[in-house]
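Lay summary. Proteins are chains of building blocks that fold into shapes, and those shapes determine what they do. In this project we predict the shape from the chain. Here is one chain we studied, written as its sequence of building blocks.
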Amino acid sequence: MGVNSSKKLAAKCSFLSKDEQLIVSNSFKLASRNSEKIKEDELTKLWGSQMDPRLLQYINNYLFGWSDQKMSTADLERFAELFVFCTRGTVDEKVKVLLTSLGKSEDEGSDIPYSLVKEYVESIVCSYMKIQKLSNSKQYKSWSSRGCTTHLQNSQRLAESLTKDLATESPISRRLLETWLQGSTVLGQLLLFVFMHLYNISHKDKSTSLVNANPESDQSTTDSVDGVKERSLVPYCRGLDLIPSYPSILDLNQIVFINAHLPQQYQLEWRFLFSSEIHGESFSTLIGRIVNQGPSVLILEDRSGYIFGGFAPANWTLGPNFFGDDSCFLFTLGPRMRVFPSTGYNQHFQYLNLHQQTMPNGLAMGGQHGYCGLWIDSEYGIGHCSESCTTYTQYQQLSHTKEFHFRHMEVWGLGQPPPTPQEKGERVIGKGGSVLDSNAESKAILKMSGKVMHSEGLREPPNT
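And here is the predicted shape, written in a compact code that computers can read:
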């Protein structure tokens, strides 16, 4: 079957858009070796090295059947159906793919053990990570070149976090399966990325590929078919150019987990701000590195190996009050991956203070003083996580013990940093300004301590 024949067949699949007809016909032509049917061994040769072996078996189950219903070949319509269902399918269509892939008929939706669904999702997560490595995009290289790798344990934790809503019921009812798939936006993004990659292998001209991002671009999103955005969920890493070997505690699974829960405008780029391994163990140094740097992600590891942190949407500034907004959340990365969004009950999202006698000195996210969801004391290296926290939904204690010592901390800025006073057109020292104009935090501390600022009105005369 020639190129034109495969295109004509694809055009007969009414559920394919014109863009999808191009993708599917090219992929089918390559996999079938210009014939009208695809054989399982031929598809295995084409796709086998691109994914987790379990996902390959699930795909073969869907395309060729299983047990006594197994067929020797699959036609283009079945091949096209798999692509559409996995990239933009309805809940019913995705349930069909899941059940058929697991060797179940559609009427067996109430007899699926949780362990099978979890393994199915784990195969998708592992395939996603493998494809990231094979694609070697600019985003992936920005992390891998600094020693960031992927660990199977964290792929398993990510899969478990994506299926946690199913764990309470086994076997799983079809209704619960449908509800879960309806809300599994992260799983949908992983599926989209994996299947767009698999079906685009046949594209020799990279400029026509809808999956391979321009290697010169810092964007981690590309246009997909029918206006659907294919998002890799791997942000670009900046700020480590002068650090040859960065001792991060994160792997790619953990980065993807955090990034997937951030507001979309902050998912494209992470800027390195602070690491206790590099900048030393000093709270004042930490403040100096994170104040006025825009939204950020904080990650800690306690001495028991628990990894946790939070997303701070507001600029860190020194002061006696809580601030921030309800996009703030806390999370754990180990031993389990969980995220705790805002409850809306209170506005105690962020707090930062230092050198005060009447107010607590440290950094807080959630709760109230003495009972914070996450507290980092100004006496560097110690903190606490409360057993409960009304600021965050379904909150669970983040650290192994309520009072903890941490052995590592790092902070990442998100997106571009806020403009400097010079960039905003404000006066600076030597241009009619004052030294206090460049240090708003010191100014605020003086005010809070009740000291009079005698130099407030003194300014150098402007140059003439």
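What the prediction tells us: The two ends are 81 Å apart (CA to CA).
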